[in-house]
Specification:
2 copies of one chain form a homodimer. By secondary structure, chain A is α/β, with parallel strands linked by helices. Helices cover 39% and strands 21% of the residues of chain A. Chain A folds into 5 domains: 131 residues, Rossmann fold (3-Layer(aba) Sandwich), CATH 3.40.50.720; 142 residues, Rossmann fold (3-Layer(aba) Sandwich); 158 residues, Rossmann fold; 77 residues, Dna Ligase, domain 1 (2-Layer Sandwich), CATH 3.30.1490.20; 114 residues, 2-Layer Sandwich (D-amino Acid Aminotransferase, Chain A, domain 1). Chain A is built from 24 helices and 31 strands. In chain A, strand 1, helix 2 and strand 2 form a beta-alpha-beta unit.
């Protein structure tokens, strides 16, 4: 994949220049300095010599094949250069220049032309508006980044060229090194999806690290990321998640990033370790590159002082991981091998008397114990502390089964060098909190990797009925469905709907009520009245014929008075729902990631407390249950606080049915069941109100 | 304050030793190496010479006065050494040894003896179980920490000796330096309160930085910290805040730390910048030491790349600060001075063409503009970036009125040294997120410093009535008050209570109901029934005499059947409350910090969503309103979502009345009004149910 981009045998630079400061100079100089072994062909109409190489006036003049063409000319000259590359049957083109889509209309036109040339010519295009590509394995620096990082384990990609450089710097500083680095710029052809696929299969890459602001194709991205995560950890910082961040991103990429909740759901599905900060990106990548994934969340803390013990225990528990009490056998073993001044507990505080051999012994004991999933070593500088010898002792006892990570508190001059630590394979952090952040990311990745097989249930449904309703509505351009029609659709997908009928006379309303049984509710049906309750358009719990007649008449009177021009489709007479817990199930179709399911408890839980969870469709039973569990108000579903336990499985089924409906019908743009009334176990949930919106038919050409 | 501890003219070391590795050796060696100018007197029964100094066999033999005595002998010999110091009329003693309170009963006895000796002798005691004290201004290293840090602006104190060393290391690494450092150990005499007072008045200390696990005297701490914060920023990391952290702290200090909510409320009151991690401690201290406090939360971001612009804007907004749009005049000025490729927006992305002079110009413009409160500069490495020159340009344009902080992304080798940055007074962070964390801490400190004058209102109340009830209950040891008596007390403090009376007959219940007016509620009064609703002991909304009689009889029947042994004080007949919003007001008396007020919306908001806020009493009107505003459900109080706007002022008054009540009567241990029903503006809130607990009288000697 992208073989001729990442591992070209020969490279041409169109726009190679002798003027220092120009990109065409930097690129040539970088290619030559990095020590790339194959031919590097400068091309410039001016001809002559450059860095002791003959300059070709046009690419066609060069007799042998060219794999990669770096185009280092201004935007307006790029299409012509691309044509040259196509004629030469190059495998890939890197366009460095800015001034394309991100610069407005004129730039967008040039970019479209460039894409067309490459597509027709069968040449892959990186950029434009990008830094280029680096492959340390073959000393390739086809970028205008001054330095080529040391060879190593991180496969880096970035939508920002400047951050790509920063990431390579940090990889170097942390002594992890880089396998490949690629700046994807405007992503006119090659996107994060291609890069994920390439790095997933790249043997030199142990961890993929990326910076993204938007995603080109949500569906492809999720699939590619899921495959990549199965092979190796993928850590991504997604920026542009706030209003201000989105504004900033849009201003220099020309793309709106979309909703962060959708990205969150997509990353979770794909097993991506999501970094919340630039530091976290490397904090996580370091641990994931150097250590095995933990089997669970139980952390043994080993330290040499009370203060660091306390602080580290806080950090682990605050991160939602566990600091288990020692089992008696573990306690006994540790006591035998640690000095008498040690506090044998978790954290294990070996005390100021800690010698390197004590750490080694504690690690050996913990690694062999089934109740410990990871080890956090926190060293505080004390009079007798020997940091360097301690590190040697620790790394000599590292193990492939349990991750060990460390935090050494204090200044770097008394601590062993990062180089020594990284070379020894011990991830190292300036604070316990950051070390724990990395442990947590590893743990979550482990949980994802060992997730149960995804089995999406398909329920028997009346798909044709829904098809018919949608077609009819789309053709008459009535795209917003009210309660009655929405319920028709939901019924076809197996939801329980209360018996009811629409009528236009009070007499018939009574007849209907008698037929379905009291008590009933009356609801006005009107496409032009949005908030029907506000206009007195909903009356509940009517227990007799007289109450139905009175309510009907009053409702018509009110509406005639306050909304005389409203189109009234009639009054809906519906059996009252029994009492239960009100939940909301919704779906919005994200432009990137497709149907995104929403769940929350009704009323103020959603509206005020914003206590909702999201998940991409299609969803499994297990994932639906996870959605319920991840609300803060989950307790209420479990039947505490005076509320009876509700049928969680029934809610999960409702979510799966909506998942099936909205996956079957991409025409449904959004959908809300609010509320769905859920009863005790064994009772079907009941749809009390619902609405949905369809997409308009594409306009005819 | 603590003059003879921090700035002694002469020092003796009891237990001075020639054996390397012993504390008595380390202390002597550290004192001599640091270059302290006054006499240093080694004392050891063995006599002889040490480091070319004559060793006194006993302290009394030394003819001149001694200010500070460092006791470097094992715990059991410490009391005798302390006696020597007392006889010498020393000003302060430092006890380094462990083996006191933290080591169990025997150690506690020695510690008590030591405290008694020092108290009687009028000598201040630092420790035991501590590292000692450092004062860089006079080259004093009276500690067993190997190194004395460079002189500088941070006044450090720590309850953990190991972390004290780590903190000095970090202060050095960040080139901030240390004024004083003091390890307070077991805090047998000198506590964080003394240290806060001393450092607050220390002219060399610009920022106080502390690590604490527990606080010795909450009230004194809050007062001392408040005074200190008024003079200079105080940044504290409070550890032991989780279950695991608390367990760890208790195991090595022998002290339970208490509730984190109380610490949170106390720190807030005292203006302490609370650090959530070891790194944050120095992140905040760096900014506070080097830059002025911002006047508001509006941040101008200046950067040189789109990626860093996006990431930084995210960081500011996620922290709850603001990235304001540029005003037209600001935009115009920036456009005039920045290159054409710059994106003139906030963030200001000067683009890859950014030269040092552009940063300087942007800073000058922003500093002079009234709509900008702080400047965040984020530099991403690019081909043309000149980090060192950029830093010089930035620091040449720093200003005393607006804080400027920076984050340079990438490896340290292409970046200017920390030394250069700190010397120039520019706080510097590895990531935008951490820089923003520091900005936020500065902003919050600024808000605290400019908070309105605290005026605690005193309402006219019937204090004597409450006094009488408490006295009677305490003397009969009936310390848990039920609804009726609690309401009596609340009434005396101006709360509106619904009319009602206790009765033992159904007939009288009807009479009472007729007198106060229907509908009424019946509630069983029983000290032995805790959950009266569960036993059918509460009936609401009784609208007629017949309903009252039926409810009364049924209630007695149920209770006789299900709780035949319950002591029934009668049935309380009370007028039904009108509908309104249910809120909960509570108070728990924290053992450290005294009465802590609690507020939350009733029912699930408190019980499930844990949406509550806390504040130390006494509280001002302004602080009470802040309590309401800081709940997540505040929206509901403002009259949205179908709920009418309630009288916020009335709730604030209720909080202030409870503040007054619980400040007036330290005997009240806890109190709950649940619910208080709050109506629209102008309606008095009504206490529907309440309970409280009194302290037992101290047992007679």
């Amino acid at each position: 994949m992208l073989e001729r981009l990442f591992s070209p045998k020969s490279i041409a630079v169109i726009g190679a220049s002798r003027t220092e400061g120009k990109v065409g100079y930097a690129t040539m100089s970088n290619l030559l300095e990095s020590g790339f072994a194959g031919p590097i062909i400068p091309v410039n109409p001016a001809g002559g010599e450059l860095f002791n190489l003959p300059v070709y006036t046009k690419l066609a003049d060069y007799p042998d094949p060219i794999d990669l063409v770096v185009v280092a000319v201004p935007a307006e000259q790029v299409p012509a250069a691309a044509e040259e590359a196509v004629r030469k049957k190059a495998g890939a083109i890197i366009v460095v220049a800015a001034g394309f889509r991100e610069a407005g209309r004129q730039g967008r036109l040039i970019e479209d032309e460039l894409i067309e040339i490459c597509r027709k010519g069968g040449v892959r295009l990186l950029g434009p508006n990008c830094l280029g590509v680096i492959n340390t394995a073959i000393n390739l620096n086809a970028s205008f980044s001054k330095r080529i990082p040391q060879a190593g384990q991180l496969g880096i990609f970035s939508q920002s060229g400047a951050l790509c450089t920063a990431m390579m710097d940090i990889a170097d500083e942390r002594e992890l090194g880089v396998s490949k680095a690629v700046s994807i710029g405007n992503k006119a052809d090659i996107t994060e999806v291609d890069i994920l696929e390439a790095l997933a299969h790249d043997e030199e890459t142990r961890v993929i690290v990326g910076y993204l602001e938007d995603i080109s194709d949500g569906d492809k991205f999720v699939k590619a990321a899921e495959k990549a995560s199965t092979r190796k950890p993928v850590v991504i910082l997604k920026a542009g998640i706030t209003v201000a961040g989105n504004r900033a991103a849009a201003s220099h990429t020309g793309v709106q990033a979309g909703k962060d909740t959708a990205y969150g759901a997509a990353f979770k599905r794909a097993g991506i370790c999501r970094a919340d900060s630039f530091e976290a990106l490397f904090d996580y990548a370091t641990a994931l590159a150097l250590q095995p994934t933990p089997k669970g969340d139980r952390v043994l803390i080993i330290t040499n002082a009370g203060g660091s013990a306390t602080m580290s225990a806080d950090a682990v528990e605050k991160a939602g991981m566990s600091v288990p009490l020692l089992t008696p056998d573990l306690e006994e073993q540790l006591r035998q091998h640690l000095p008498p001044s040690a506090f044998i507990d978790n954290p294990v505080d070996i005390s100021a008397a800690a010698e390197p051999r004590h750490y080694a012994a504690a690690i050996d004991i913990a690694v062999a114990h089934p109740d410990i999933d990871s080890i956090l070593i926190v060293l505080a500088p004390q009079y007798m502390t020997e940091p360097a010898a301690t590190v040697r002792a620790i790394v000599a006892h590292l193990d492939e089964t349990i991750p060990v990570i460390a935090s050494f508190l204090g200044g770097s001059d008394i601590m062993p060098s990062r180089k020594e630590l990284a070379a020894a394979g011990l991830p190292f952090y300036d604070s316990p909190e950051r070390a724990v952040g990395a442990l947590k990311a590893m743990h979550e990745y482990g949980v994802w990797k060992h997730r149960p097989a995804r089995h999406v249930v398909r329920f028997p449904v009346n798909r044709r009925r829904v098809e018919r309703i949608i077609t009819r509505r789309q053709h008459t351009n009535r795209l917003r469905l009210g309660e009655v029609k929405s319920k028709d659709i939901l019924k076809a997908y197996g939801f329980q709907i209360l018996p009811g009928r629409v009528t236009t006379s009070a007499e018939e309303a009574v007849e209907i009520a008698r037929f379905i049984g009291f008590p009933v509710a009356l609801k006005v049906i009107s496409p032009s009245i949005v908030h029907k309750s506000d206009l007195g358009g909903v009356r509940l719990n009517l227990g007799s014929a007289q109450e139905v007649v009175d309510a009907f008449d009053l409702m018509m009177l009110r509406i005639n008075k306050h909304a005389p021009n409203a189109i009234i489709g009639g009054i809906y007479v519906e059996k009252m729902a029994e009492k239960g817990l009100e939940v909301i199930i919704g779906m919005t179709r994200d432009p990137q990631f497709g149907p995104m399911l929403m769940f929350g408890l009704g009323g103020i839980f959603v509206e005020v407390m914003k206590d909702v969870t999201f998940h991409l469709a299609p969803i499994t039973e297990d994932e639906a249950i996870q959605m319920l569990k991840s609300t803060r108000s989950y307790e209420l579903l479990q039947g505490k606080r005076g509320v009876k336990e509700v049928d969680l499985h029934a809610i999960a089924v409702a979510l799966q049915r909506i998942s099936q409906l909205t996956t079957d019908f991409p025409q449904i743009l959004d959908l809300d069941i609010n509320p769905l009334i859920v009863g005790e176990i064994g009772n079907e949930p009941v749809v009390v109100d619902a609405r949905m919106t369809f997409a308009a038919l594409p306009e005819e050409q």
